[in-house]
Amino acid sequence: MAREPIDQANNARGKELAPAPPDQAQADQAQNFAAGDIDPATVPADEEDEARLPEAEAADDSNEAPAEGRLAVGHAAIENAVRLAPTSPGVYRMLNAANDVLYVGKAKNVRKRLSSYARVSAPLPARILRMIAATVSVEIVSTATETEALLLEANLIKQLRPRFNVQLRDDKSFPYILITGDHWAPQILKHRGAQTRPGQYFGPFASAGAVNRTITALQRAFLIRSCTDAFFESRTRPCLLYQIKRCAGPCTREIDFPGYTELVREAKDFLSGRSQAVKQLLAAEMEKASAELEFETAALYRDRLAALSAIQSQQGINPRTVQEADVFAIHQEGGYSCVEVFFFRTGQNWGNRAYFPKAEKSFTPEEVLASFLTQFYDDKPPPKLILLSHAIEESELMASALSIKAGFKVEVTTPLRGEKKELITHALTNAREALGRKLADTATQSRLLSGLVVTLGLPQPPRRIEVYDNSHIQGTNAVGAMIVAGPDGFVKNQYRKFNIKSEGLTPGDDYAMMREVLQRRFKRLLAAAAADETAGPRAPAKAEDDGVPQWPDLVIIDGGRGQLNAAKEIFDTLGLSQVALLAVAKGPDRDAGRETLFMPDREAIKLEPRDPVLYFIQRLRDEAHRFVIGSHRKLRKKDIREAGLQEIPGIGPSRKRALLHHFGTLKEIERASIADLGRVPGVSAESARKIFEFFHTQPG
Predict the structure, then answer these.
(1) What is the Cα–Cα distance from 510 to 470, expressed in whole angstroms?
(2) For residue 630, which of 511, 522, 497 has the smallest C-alpha distance?
(3) Could you identify which of 18, 305, 402, 440 might form a hypothetical disulfide with 410, taking C-beta atoms 3.0 to 4.6 angstroms apart as the criterion?
(4) Cα–Cα distance for residue pair 346/197, rounded to 1 Å
């Protein structure tokens, strides 16, 4: 495939603005005891970001055609491209005066397709006319086949996010279940990313929550370990998971190698679709044990059967005739689209997820679904069968492209009857309900933002709110954090953390920390705006990749009048007069509902404890506090790992070795109680207290 270099605007942020990973999903405490169920080498923290509705833009909703003069310029630019365009397959990109990509399209005959845009008298939708009017140049990439053009088009749309294309948002790799194959006692864990580790992968699952629930049930059913290899090798006695019958205890040979291998084989059989055979085998073993009066063994098999039944009951709908398929159903309402995706593997439902692609109102469901599919499978392996709620024009081309990519035949179809049609109907119902819930949530958020206008005297509802907070322990491991909220709620992929760098900063000086964070954040924004010749220092129309503005309309900081003055000093220095500033001081005894709000040049604001606006502000502040505490703890743990236990007063090499020999890993030492620490040879009660307090002191 011939591809020309693609210039992309890289929104460089530096280390202090590098996106921080989301928080880890809430998991079962006993599951986490044995070092968790994820592969630490390949998987970041993976709390699922909530899918959000795209930002509605006034320009996109307009049905008015552009001015004739601008339209003539666009037609002329396209006509120039037509003269040089090939008659072979390829991909074309329409660019505006700022060299931004407006639209990416593919064609079997590029010249013929561009000619359709160049005809002045052709009846085209207002959306297409606006695109033509903004076009000043066209770039073309030739491909060997139309199939290659389809794949390249999807790749470019995901990279460049053109304004006039359908855009897949909130996209990420899906989690899998991995049963490892590089250890004599295989481990079961959640895996996301490249499948390079030896073992068998089962998936994809729609969410981390679906994987967590399945792994928990599989542990109850098959007693497979979830701990890391390092934790496994260091054990001298079984861990808690063995005690609660979630692991067979291979680490201390509570089960022999053949017995554990049989458990692993049964788990693989179940995940591979042979669930009935596995259940029948367990039922037979239970009956045999009962007949031999081995009631404890029979009870164990009973519990394992119950765990397997729980997995299938949680999956809701399990098809009889469909072994491997992805089901896509689209519903449109209020100018928005929702695509619900169900994953079926080995005849089991492995979860579903709702997407809200960004598309203008004029796009039909078929157009949205076709563009969504090409982008969805750009970086994911397709199944053998893809079921659609709406028939798309190029289903055969789509099937051909995905077959080449997958290495086996992929079928793309719209069922009309039978069980496959029932799956589509079920997915459509979920799509309709998901969009209804999202529209209702968005309306509630809009009312809260409108309430801020009245309470704070803002000129208009803020489209972007940034909330800042700091965390440290007596000045050490100081970190600042920013969270972002907008019309659709929290925008977690734009959260940022700031490692405090100032060398001359007095330990514990919260005002100086806040000044450094705000200065670094807004200096970078001003520098980015200055580099853009078409934008001033406040460019509210410019947006990040997902449609959220780069510049905040409202900045909230956790603190009182002193923090407000520190922030205002930075704003005055940088000339940020158009950004509203709010400080939230905690109430007496830190009681929620008795906060005081401070704004520059205004009297303090006190709201009623049950005021929805106050509750909204509390939620914003609490989210910032949660995020900064998590960032601080992560930084602190990194320092502890690098410095070792010697950082704790009174803990030298001998006690460090004793602790590690007893608990196995630093994580287990951190989780241990004072009583458990005191049982380690050579660790006194006072030392145990110091160790416990070192790991559990609350940051400020």
Answers:
(1) 7
(2) 497
(3) 402
(4) 22
